[in-house]
Fold each of these.
Amino acid sequence: MTKTNMSKGAIWLSRTTPPHVMTLVLLASISALNMNIFLPSLPGMAAYFDTDYGFMQLAISAYLGITAVLQLIIGPLSDRFGRRPVLLGGLTIFLLATIGCIFSPSVGVFLFFRMVQGAVAAGMVLSRAIVRDMVEPWEAASMIGYITMGMSLVPMIGPVLGGYLDQNFGWQSSFTLVLVFGALVLWLVWADLGETNTLKSSSFKAQFKAYPELIRSRRFWGYALSAGFASGAFFAFLGGAPFVSIELLDLDPAQMGLYFVFISMGYMGGNFLAGRFSNVIGMNRMMLFGSIVAVFGMLLAIGLWAVGLEHPLSFFGSIMFVGIGNGMTLPNANAGIVSVRPHLAGSASGLGGAVMIGGGAGLSAITGAMLTIETGAWPLLYMMLGSAVLAVVTSGYVIYVASQAGELGHRGTAK
């Protein structure tokens, strides 16, 4: 069965065919929901566990770091043993860790289980690899764009729900909701996701030996760094926005959750543009245009803040353009990552995801540590601008390599 036919052969709730697109949407969504639903609760959780905000913020930055490391393992595991068993195992571990988070008696125990929750990264990594299993590169960007557009509905309402739940039932209620949603996704993967990896590697060791083939590829690094810098602006935002919202803009958790809708709406709009126009404009140029839009958003935010318009609308409204830009850039960068070496799609997705999430972890931690009442929002704004500018540079580099080596074909390229 060819890749295109494979994508058309999905039968809903059948374990013998490729998954329905809604299964992939929900599979990617659980990772996103777990990332941001409790953001409005961070200051309150710091008070609950009697620790400072910077330490509590490790629930984001350290979690991202662990997720980055796990992606290096998840990708090769799926190339060796298949997408289905790795997903089922990762989601099961995630659910057990979520229960641990809910009943944690101390911040140390909570952070331990929060790190184990990183197993849910299998959903994000392998949803991309599964798409590449099913379709060719030029179709993958559009399909990933539509999947992430549907997925973005979940993180859009995540902080809103998290803020409401925190205010009325306590921070544990957000993790309870994640537990219920995660159990639903686990059942859906078991019932609907047939194995799509038809070219399993001969051994797990062979997969790690294949990493140098990816590392030598200039194009792979262009796509991976473009994704890393584009998402880095967002991860810096995750690390600093709760502090700016609550300490500088005097928002309560529920209000902060509502304002988070701006960036999610932007991301959803950018995903639509990627899904609709990537086939026409091309993956590489769409990445570049998206990165430029993100830079514009940050320049607007800095300009408004500089003239004294320190208001939630000027802050979140400007950063909405970062969401639009990322929504255009990331589906195409991720499609490129898994298309450079189609036979290593899982490993490429894992390594590319590790670059993306690892860089995000560093930016999130640095941003959270730099923010104080005295510094205001400036460290966050400059960090996001710098990351967006570097995404423009690396997108331009991908276009340069493509001008020398040609566009990606059915089998990718060695350069």
Note: Residues 218-248 form the longest helix (31 residues).
Amino acid sequence: MSIFKQKIGQDYQTVAEIKVLLEDVEAERAADPDRDLRYELARAIEHVNRFALLDPEESRTFVEELANFEKVDSQTAIKIADLKPQSRDELRSVYAHERYALDGTELDDILDVVARYL
């Protein structure tokens, strides 16, 4: 089974972790330059190369630190780690679909963690 058809799992991963997986795809393509990448895969590789600024271990530590907050589940922690919001408004947009809102102190505490990883 080629890597293009393999289901890796259903756990959430950061952009930095996905970059590592897509590097394997790029290496496979480098070995066979006549092989074209599907448009979506090429755009995904371009995206992770542009936006994955942390290494995978550091991004996972970042997510775990965010997940320690009461109102930050693992999926939201990954969104925050990938987006790295720098203001209350940016952070509120991550929570726009939730049924609850964070107060100013909670927002500031999360933004303090984000600031350490910028």
Note: The chain has a mean pLDDT of 89.
Amino acid sequence: MESLNTQNKHIGWWEKSISEPVTGKNAVLQAISNIKDPVYIISKNGNLSVVQDGIASIGSKETKEIEGFPLLAYAPPLLPEDLGDPVFKKRYNLRFAYIVGAMANGITSTEMVEAAGRAGMLGFFGSGGLTLPEIEKAIHDLKRRLDTFPFGLNLIHSHNSPEFELETVRLYLKHQVNLISASAYLELTLPLVYFRIKHL
């Protein structure tokens, strides 16, 4: 990397820990791709360098106060479990604020929903396009596999068969399915409102 004048540009100072700062474009790319560790961009002998450990002091300390290098930029660790709404994660006891599914015709299978739940995500079984016995079997399987993990099922709008949509809702209510992924709705339908009201 090219040398640069860091006078009046630094945001603080970096003190050495274990690793040595590394220069070069590849070093920066490698550091920012490692999201589990912080990234410190420093000026070492006038060269832009990167390191992922050490101690950063943000502020206007004099150089004589610490033995280190000017800190130009800092990025904290960015873990996937730190993203998303913490209220959403707490409500459903999730590690990640991610939803999996629900692709119809069982494409999002019970196995995928189980894998999502055990990984700390919320999975929705793709029940759209399946028969009521197939959906009921999936509910039994998921309740057996995920007795302590949250999961949901798809509720797809059946504009040609409102009776089937209502029977699907009744099946969900019968088995105490509390979470649905409503899809293909252009407006509210009576079965969808019925499901929501029953959970008030």
Note: Residues 12-78 form one domain.
Amino acid sequence: MFDLIIIGGGPAGYFAAERAGQEGLNVLLIEKSSLGGVCLNEGCIPSKTLLYSAKLYDNAKQGERYGVRADNVSFDHSAVLRRKNKVVRILTAGIKAKLTANNVKIVNEKAKILGKTGDSFNIKAGDMTYQGKQILIATGSVPVIPPIPGVQEGLDAGYILTNRSILDLAEVPASLVIIGGGVIGLEMASYYNSAGSKVTVIEMLDYIGGFIDREIGDFLLKEYQKKGIQFKLSSRVTKVEPGSVTYESDGELFTIEADKALLSIGRRPATCELGLEAIGVELEKGRIKTDSCGRTNIPGIFAAGDVNGVSMLAHTAYREAKACINTILGNEDIINYDAVPSVIYTNPEVAGVGETEESAKKKGLDYSVKKLSMRYNGRFMAENEGRDGICKVLYDNQSQRILGIHIISSYASEIIHSAAMMIESKMTIMDTDRFVFPHPTVSEIISDTILS
């Protein structure tokens, strides 16, 4: 009998297992594939490894701006992939070592919930059945496959790619069409544009970036266009064939060349074939419905990470896993989703937390905006010749409480956590006046913008 059985070894699953093991619980972690889940094996880490290589290449080509001249700079995609695989292997081994050190039992099988007997839940994994007092479901998400003519055939043949297969693409395609202008699509557009592909992004909406502040997204769009990436906004893909993608815009059909096409229109919670119906776990539009502590409608059953469909980000999964374990231990822990930052690791990076102008308007909030160009920042100017960015702060007019902070700049991903802490702590504009930011750093732009 285990105190806790965790289904899924991605960020939510392995973090929860480690924390629960540290607290003395007898934990079983069941993962059907590789420890680390999508994030470590086919998402966050592999893509960032590729993007860093692309950033180094871009910087080398532009070195003359900084008095550094390099001749015959080249990009070796195969070497980039080898390094990516090495990084993943090292980190995966590290996760397994930490779990083992905390006495977590790991089973590499597909899990299915059979039901409940007395005070224990029964879970089948391979040829074995295990009993657990409580269950944490952390099975993550899978790509959405739309019913577009030719898509399934393209996936089977290999000329249509998913977020997983594009990270193992042996050669850089001459032309790449990306279906969807969200986070994954934009990051891969950035990498393959730098690597030498002719990249076109087709997006149904009239803007890119999905959840990000619209002004920030428009700025990123212009930066991408300067690099030669083409965008077809307010456009809908109608057919995919070997070597081409057809889309509709303003009632007309257009066909463009595509050696490869990346399908990147979103992800859905992975809840199929888990046996949820055996114990009556409530679903809402395909996601496991949870409260702000990670509890489902069934006592003893928790869910964390993409499977609950609230905020499909790895760091959200960590936070949800922490809340679940704290609650299991009797220390109820409430998640504040308003303080969860989001990042697009493009070049330049985009990061934001809290309300955007669009969400603030939709909620009818009485707010104002403070905004500064990144050219106001000394560190940014020293390292970004000929470039610009934005720091944008939203605050409540009555209480002066900070509602949201959004940045497009180098290092945006590394400094947004300070903004998240301001929102988590419900700080006002003047509360931040006593903070000391090191100089010169890009992070100073947050303080400068707030106090401008």
Note: The two ends are 59 Å apart (CA to CA).
